Each structure stands twice: as C-alpha cells, then as structure tokens.
Amino acid sequence: MVRRSATGRIGIADVAVKAGVSHATVSRVMNGNFTVDPDIAARVRAAAAELKYQPNPVGRSLALGKTDTIGIVVPDLANPTFQAILRGLSRAAAQDGYRVLIADSFEVSSEEAILAGEARRRCDGLVLCAPRMSDAELEEIAPSLRPLVLINRTTDADDIPSLVVDYGQGVQDIAEHLVELGHTRLAFLSGPPRSASNGLRLQGLEAFKAAHPQVEVRMLEGGSDFDTGHGAVDAVLESGATGILAFNDLVAMGLMSGLHERGLQVPGDISVTGFDDIPFAKYTTPALTTAAVPITELGEQAWHQLRALIRKEDNDAPGSRYQPRLEVRASTGPAKAPRQAVHG
Amino acid sequence: MVRRSATGRIGIADVAVKAGVSHATVSRVMNGNFTVDPDIAARVRAAAAELKYQPNPVGRSLALGKTDTIGIVVPDLANPTFQAILRGLSRAAAQDGYRVLIADSFEVSSEEAILAGEARRRCDGLVLCAPRMSDAELEEIAPSLRPLVLINRTTDADDIPSLVVDYGQGVQDIAEHLVELGHTRLAFLSGPPRSASNGLRLQGLEAFKAAHPQVEVRMLEGGSDFDTGHGAVDAVLESGATGILAFNDLVAMGLMSGLHERGLQVPGDISVTGFDDIPFAKYTTPALTTAAVPITELGEQAWHQLRALIRKEDNDAPGSRYQPRLEVRASTGPAKAPRQAVHG
DNA sequence: GCGATCTGAGAAAACGCTTTCTCGCCGGGC
DNA sequence: GCCCGGCGAGAAAGCGTTTTCTCAGATCGC
After folding, report:
1. What's the whole-number mean pLDDT along residues A239-264?
2. Which of A67, A90, A253 comes nearest B77 by C-beta?
3. CA of B32 to C1' of C6 (A)
4. For residues A153, A156, A162 and A168, what is the CA-based torsion angle, rounded to 10 degrees?
5. Does any CB of chain A come closer than 8 Å to the CB of residue B121?
6. Most buried residue, A55, A154, A207, B177, by CB count within 10 Å?
C-alpha cells in the first residue's frame, strides 16, 4: 500500500518506510553515496522504483542552495535574435543538466530590473539581454544579479562577462562592400533610438564617414521590425540613396517588400543590406546581403561563461567580442547612375 | 551592520532581528496579512527596505507547495511554430505572475518523457508539445504530469485539455483553393513520418480525394524545414503536379527558393502553398498562400486552460479545436496547361 | 473588579530534502 | 581479553519560508 504524504506525492519518507531504513539512508542511496551497504542500497532502490519515487527538486534546491536552473531576460521573444540566443543557451545548458527559465520583458524596460531580480532569485545565474536599459540602471542592478552574463552590454564589474557583437565593425564592412560596388549615396535605416547595438552601429558609421568623406551617409529614423522597413520606403526614396543599410534583417526584408510593391528592383534600382543573418535571410528574393552574427553560438558561449561563474572556476576569457562576417548575397549590386531625389 | 546568513544572502531572520520582531511577523507583513499592528508592520517594512530583503522563492515554494512556474516541453526551439506557442504562453502566464521553464527535447523523442517529468516536478503545471511521441507512451505518462495541457495531441483522460489545430480541414481548404484555380494534379510534400499533425493532414487529404475523384493527389516524402523543401524540387517536378501543398511554410519557402533557382515561376509554372502562416510568410516573394493558424493565441489559451486546472476551477471548455483560415496570397494562381512529367 | 473574549505576536511545526553529528557494532592489535 | 579505530546507519539539524498553535495582554461585560 502506497502511503501518501500530505501533498499527495510520495516522498523520501515513504521510501524509507518501505525499505525499512531512515530518510538519511534513502537520500544517500539516491545521491550515489557509496558508504551504504550494497544490500540496503539495493533494497532502497527497489522500494524507490516500486513507488516510482522521484526526489522533489524544490526540497533539494533548498537543501543544496542551488536550483540547476538559469534565467534569461529578453526584451522580446518574437525577435529572431533573442530566439537564437535562447536556443543556443538552452541547448548548451541542457547538456550540463541545467534548465532555462525565461523572462520576457516585452520591451517594457521599466520592468526589466524587477523581472531580472525575480528571475535571478529562482535561478543559479542569469543571462541578461537588455538593449534599452540605461547604463546607469545596468550598473546599479548588475552586481545584485551575479552570477551574471551580459549580452551586447558591458559593465565596469570585472566578474561580469560581456558577450558583445562588434556591430560597429560589421556596419563598416557592409558600407565598404556597397562602396566597392560603386555606391556613393548610402542611407542607414536605424534601429530603436535607445538601443545599445544601434549606438554601436552609429559609431561605426561615424568612423566610416571619417574614412570615406566622399560618400554621403544619410541617417533615417527606424525601428527593428518588418513594419519599420515596410513603412520606410518613402523616406528611403526621398533620401536619394542607392545603398540602404537596414538596422537588421527584419527591417531589410520589410523594406525589400515595400520596394517590390512600388515596382522597384533590388538590387537593380536600390541595394539593400540587413544585419544578423537570421535563418530566413538566405531565402528571401533576392537573398539578403547581410552581416552574419554567430548568434546561436553566442548563446552557447553565454552558458559557458555562466557555468564558469557558477562553478567559481577561473575564467581565462571573461567575455568575448564577436566579429560579424559579411555575407554577400543577391540583394546588393552595382550602383545605378545617381537618381534624383523623389518628391513625395 | 547587515548580518548575513550562511548563504550570503539576507533572509527573513535578518529582517526580524533588525525590526525586533519574530520571523513569523515578518512573514505576515510581507504577505499582506492585516492581523499585524500597523506600527510594527511599518517597522518591518522599513527594515526590509533598508536591507533590500526579498523573500527566497525556493523557501516559499517549499512552504506553499507551489512554484508559480509552468513548464513547456517543445521538440525544437528553432521551429517558428513552437516559438510562437512559447511566446503566447509566456505572455499570458506572465500576466498572472507565472514564469515559464522551457524544456527543449531537440527532437529526441526517447528523452521526452523523462524531460517532461523533470520539468513537471519543478513546476505547477505543464504544456506538452510532443508531436512524435507514440500514443501509447503519451497515454502512459500523461496522468503523472497533471496539471497538463496538450498541444495537437489528445488523450483519453478528461481532465487533460487538448488544444488541437484542425490540420485536416486546413489542408482540404487549401486543396479546394487550388482546384478552384483549375489545378487537377496536386502533390503533398509531407512532413515528418511520425508527426501527429502530418497524420491529420493525410487524413484530410484522403477525405479530399474521396470528394474529388477527378483530382490527382500525389504524396511525396518530406520533412519540416527549409532544406526539405529546397531538396524536394526534383521530386516535385517529377510528379508533374501544378499545385504543391507543402507540409508547412518553411518547407514551402524552401521549395519556392529551389524552384526559383531552376528558373521556374511561382505561381506561373507551379503554385505553392504552405501551412501555419508564420510571420515571414507574407514577406516571401511571392507572398505565400497558406493556412493561418492562430498559434500565438493557442499558446495563450494553453495558459488559460492550465490556469483553470491549477486553480482547480471548473473548466467549461476543456480543450478547443482551432480552424485554420485560408490566407490567399501571391504564390498560387491559375493552373497552366498540364505539363509532362520531367524525367530526372 | 474579575472572568470571559478577543487581538496580536512569538514559538514551533511543517514543507522535502541533504548532511553533519553521533553512536553502536565489528574487527584488529596488543 | 580489552581497547581503539573505523565503518555504516540513524538522529537531528539545517535550508528559508508559511502557518498553525499557543499564550500574554488588553478589552469588554456584568
């Protein structure tokens, strides 16, 4: 007869009774402690199997002071970039027996700090993606979130690894590519104003402009999704630019779609580039020229960094910098003769 | 001076000491119990604020017997369908103060049962997406996972809600649409052989064939990703079909890409349809005709069903059936005169 | 003014596990 | 034959909360 504890689930006590031993011994057996007599161990295992006993993780967590779970805070689960980070993180962590708790802030950056704190307390460590959070706030909450790994953000604390993508370099590589194709009028369809990675792109473009004074680079307001790109067609045409650097692949795809609707050819009339190299980028028509970011690998690395922190290992490489790789596809081509600006 | 418990984090005991009250009183204050003297409550709150005390969720979970967390088991986080379910689920659950723990089985269905059990024990409930699991195994493990909500699977137990998409009807709607455009030779680029939703599609096509004996419907082997579609071009051309029903949007996009490379026009030469209406479907060129599944809403509903179970509410609508909506875009068009089968 | 009632806070048990502490028992050494 | 060391298992003390139980003190009624 299976005795049931108050909660209705069988616990260590039930196994102990059935095997005629103490709680402690059951625990020892379940944890592979070899100081227990083989006969008794077998009896305990038999009892556990018969009762289908599975240790309660909450009890274990409390006793051990660890949850075997890590958290990840993302601003938007709909964004392929964060999906890819999550995927890489989850896969890598799973291989070490860790689970991932997700905290989606839905772009409400005012909630991010609280959300991060709550997630952290349930986990052994945290990966934070908070592109819109202010530096000041980040600096303030980061210490309390340790062990912590930052994605595309940095902090002064030296035990908080940062995994950053060199967006500045990537955007310069793309611009170079367009210039080599003969484009002299470029436009950057920028991302969300407060986005940290957008700031890096802008810095990169400043460096580019300094190095290429003969090239015109217009800055256009933007965002980070399809609709931004789709809605930016007028602004793009008005700019008179022949080479467009979209904030990311989503924006680029939206833009290409909008241009297509207007009967414009890509890259015949206008060259378009993205950023990130999301899985869909190579399947657009024309296939999108973009800067490939090894984003799943970044998620994986995030876990490795976090694992080192959790295990208190010496981390020889605290944080890393990822270089995007220019991926030339069919959405960029030689520049046409300069067009006149279109009047809306 | 801030006293620190053994773990280095401040606990309820520190607040109690600082406020000069007992643990119990601190707990009462933190949980909004009004049987405590306002003066003392204020003192406790001040102490808590000063120490930045935040209750340890693991301790709470153990005492309360709940974790305010739900789990979701998905076969592949890279699949947009499961990403969308996760997103809807996460958003809905977050509004009720619940978090989501993810368990990615990476298509290793032999691990699914164990994974699901482990996830369940850490959570208050589970959402299970296991399209490849056998009916027998599902039936066996489902009871032990309660509260449980199934996605696109059903079970005999009546307290396990199932949210199923009517793939059979959806595929029939698509086929009807193609027939109306004059196609008489169709081909179904099927999904993974053991996939439950693929089975439903096949059933739907059988019903369709029975109702339209004059239409030829070929079955082609397939899969569920881009590469499947891209690699199926030869088989599709050999079939001589002019209307292709791809298993899902990913396969359809891969196929369109492959056809494009061969210089074939969509829909001029061949009409292609997808399934799911993932966000990218409307941005392909040509935009993809597909059957739209309200998949994010499905994730949201999964939470509502699970919430009812967790709260032990009477659930008036245990499970629901979702009808896909035909979304006619530019990838389907009138049939050409029947082509001869191409010899590879 | 005294007993009954009620309020509010502390003591302690409970949640389910791990782990230290303790102790009985056995074997070996002298 | 006795003592000591070591081994193995039970008792008990945590882990950090919540909640029941208990009881002191205050309030009320008569």
Report:
1. 94
2. A90
3. 21
4. 50
5. yes
6. B177
The mean pLDDT values, 10 residues at a time, for chain B of 344 residues are 57 93 94 89 94 96 96 94 96 97 92 95 97 94 95 93 96 98 97 93 97 96 92 95 96 93 94 94 90 96 96 78 96 78 48
Question: Tell me, in Å, how far CA of A50 is from C1' of D10?
Answer: 23
Class of the CATH-defined domain A167-289? alpha beta
Helices (DSSP H) in A56-108: which residue ranges?
57-64, 80-95
pLDDT of B33 reads: 85
Q: Please name the amino acid found at residue B318.
A: P
Nearest CA in chain A to B70: A101
Q: In what order do the strands lie in the sheet with A271-273?
A: A216-220, A185-189, A243-246, A271-273
Give the minimum alpha-carbon distance from A122 to chain B in angstroms, rounded to a whole number.
6
How near does any CA of chain A get to the CA of B58, in Å? 6
Q: Which fold has domain A67-160+295-323?
A: Rossmann fold (3.40.50)
Nearest CB neighbour to B67, from listed A7, A58, A119: A58
Is pLDDT at A343 greater than 60 in this prediction? Answer: no
What local confidence, expressed as pLDDT, does residue B344 receive?
A: 41
Name the token pair of B15: 């607040």
B223 within 8 A of B230, measured Cβ to Cβ: no
How far is Cα B28 from Cα B19, in angstroms, rounded to an integer?
13
B102·A100 Cβ contact <8 A: yes
A90: closest chain B residue by CA = B104
Distance (Å, whole) CA A237 – CA B8: 59
Neighbours of A219 (CB within 10 A): 12
Radius of gyration of chain A (CA): 27
Across the interface, do B102 and A99 touch by the CB < 8 Å criterion? yes
The CATH architecture to which B65-160+295-323 belongs is 3-Layer(aba) Sandwich (3.40)
Q: Is the CB of A31 under 7 A from strand C?
A: yes
Calculate the angstrom distance between C1' of D12 and CA of B338: 84
Number of C-beta neighbours around residue A150 at 10 A:
24
Provide the Cα torsion B107, B249, A269, B270; round to 10°.
Answer: 130
pLDDT confidence tier of residue A5, bands split at 50, 70 and 90:
very low
At B67, which amino acid appears? T
Cα(B40)–Cα(A258) distance, rounded to whole angstroms? Answer: 64
pLDDT band at A4 (very low <50, low <70, confident <90, very high): very low
Alpha helices (H) in B218-331, listed in sequence order = 226-231, 233-239, 249-261, 295-310
Angstrom distance (rounded) from CA B336 to CA A92: 50
| Ranges of each domain in chain A | 12-55, 67-160+295-323, 167-289
The distance of A294 to chain B (nearest Cα, Å) reads: 15
> Of the candidates A58, A97, A130, which has an alpha carbon nearest to the alpha carbon of residue A307?
A97
> How many whole angstroms separate alpha carbon B113 and alpha carbon B133?
9
The CA distances from residue A20 to A7, A40, A46, B202, in Å, are 22, 9, 12, 55
Q: What's the pLDDT at B9?
A: 83
CATH topology identical between B65-160+295-323 and B167-289 = yes
- Token pair in block for residue A171: 């955007």
A153: its two tokens: 């953000």
pLDDT at A144: 94
